[in-house]
Write a structure and sequence with these properties.
alpha/beta, 7 helices, globular
Length: 203
């Protein structure tokens, strides 16, 4: 698959990167697939590695709703729950944006990605250079900031108390960007931080 370049002055370059990342906004993005997908309104999905069963089921139900309503979803799709969300979304016809926490130059394309790429509804997007070929906690956090800056709406299925995802939520909320989560005792920590109810999403 060819890797396209999306520069700062490209009309497909997401304006949110400049607004929320400022001087740290990447000057160049690497893309496999159609960069035109970046013109869509996007819905970001995040979840901690560990997640209560009740939240998992609600998250899968939400993914089916997003898929059926044709909403463009963006994520790193890295944690086990996020990966299953991707499996659900790829069975639909709506656009999906995958943002790996590494360079996509020379990346092997999974078999299940090829048809959605050919159909023009899957975009792989990365701000990382060829030297960033290994995933690390630091790069994963940078990727999550990148995804959140692009997204119009941000959904956190679950963030373990005092964990990395919760700390990341604090950072995004400081941008005055809304975060949504399920109403659940398991998510009280996010509610206290200021996360809104997923019921307000209207999906």
């Amino acid at each position: 698959m060819n890797v396209n370049k999306v520069y700062l002055d490209n009309p497909n370059y997401p304006s949110g990167l400049k607004i929320y990342l400022g001087a740290n906004a990447p000057t160049l993005l690497a893309a496999i697939g159609s960069p035109d997908i970046l013109q869509n309104k996007t819905f970001a999905v995040f979840c901690s590695v560990k997640c209560p069963g009740s939240i998992i089921l609600k998250t899968y139900d939400l993914m089916h709703q997003l898929r059926d309503k044709g909403i463009t979803v963006i994520s790193g799709f890295h944690s086990p729950i996020e990966k299953e969300c991707l499996n659900i979304l790829l069975k639909g016809k709506q656009p999906v944006i995958i943002c790996p926490a590494r360079s996509i130059e020379g990346m092997r394309i999974k078999a299940e990605y090829k048809k959605p790429l050919e159909d023009g509804r899957l975009l792989m997007l990365s701000p990382f250079t060829e030297k960033d070929k290994r995933v690390s906690a630091e790069i994963a956090l940078e990727r999550n900031r990148f995804v959140s800056a692009i997204a119009d709406r941000i959904f956190i299925a679950y963030a373990e108390a005092a964990g990395k995802t919760e700390q990341f939520c604090r950072e995004i909320l400081a941008w005055n960007k809304p975060i949504y989560t399920f109403d659940s005792d398991a998510n009280k920590n996010l509610n206290i931080l200021g996360a809104r109810s997923a019921a307000e999403l209207g999906v």
